Amino acid sequence: MKTGALMLDLEGLELLDDERTLLKQPEVGGLILFGRNIDSYEQLKALVKSIREVRPDLLIAIDQEGGRVQRLKDNVSLLPPMAKLGQLARSGQEEAISSAEALGLLMAWELRELDIDISFAPVLDLDFGRSGVIGDRAFADDAKQVVALAGAFMAGMKRAGMAATGKHFPGHGWVEADSHLDVPVDERSLGEIESQDLVPFASLIEAGLAGIMPAHVIYKQVDSQPAGFSSFWLQQVLRDRLGFEGIIFSDDLTMEGASVAGSFPERAAQALEAGCDMLLVCNNRAAALEVLDWLKSQNHPGSERISAMRGQTVGSLDDGLLSSAREVAARLMDS
User: Fold this and answer.
1) pTM given for the model
2) Domain limits of the chain?
3) Would you tell me which CATH number, out of the four given (3.10.620.30, 2.60.40.1180, 3.30.240.20, 3.20.20.300), belongs to the domain 6-334?
4) What pLDDT digit, counting tens, does each position of 20-44 carry?
5) C-alpha–C-alpha distance, residues 8 and 157, integer Å
6) Residues noted as catalytic
7) What is the pLDDT of residues 190-204, one digit of tens each?
8) Quick one: residue 275, left, alpha or beta (phi over 0 = left, psi -120 to 50 = alpha)?
């Protein structure tokens, strides 16, 4: 089943009449929730229910990584930044891995209880100590450690019925600029990136990673385009060399890092041509409408890959398992 290529957002706490009409457009295949859409757990539950009444098949997403990137905080577990797991691994690798799986399970289970399909997680970037926007969102500074911890987190997500999205391919941790506000340029060679940043992506693709989000970063020695608009990165490296068969989500096309690709329809066209399956256009309704109109003008068919990201029903989980996971989260929050 093909799903529309556009993922957009909502203005507030309730679904407005014009938004109901917008979500019915077949070119719209996804919706991402932000903090402004959340006032309380019960309100969010009602909002998601109202969305499902309009479009049961819509892919509903949120950023619920933990630490400073956790949109929903009411009546759910507060999650530590993933760097806490890397710190824990220095004194106990097995404990860190089991804790990572517990956090992935807990995050995914609590979102699936709300009928939210995915959180855009885990972050697979390395923490080189250079990027403020990545920083403690990364599990560790060592690629093998990121593979172990993010792989366990991903396994926990899967156990709760949620597919994982690795970001930001091929790696955002080296650049200092924030792609929300600037156009970051990574000066390293392809060999350096392959030996470090690409390792977690390559390993977790083999482990069944379902989704990937590329970075709005230009890797100057490799290609003149940011990764999300680069057929080299998305086709030659990600699809052909690494054998990735899952869904590629663009990062938000309204970010400054995407501005080099031109107007919003031009950004959409270049992202799709490079290999993206779903386009995120957030925090700018006019831009989302421009992209929607462009998709209509192109009779864009959507993608068959997107449906694989929808949340799965896995039955009940043992209360003791969830309690243990909540204890892990609380302990790491306090550490």
Assistant:
1) 0.97
2) 6-334
3) 3.20.20.300
4) 999 999 999 999 999 999 999 999 9
5) 24
6) 180, 251
7) 999 999 999 999 999
8) left
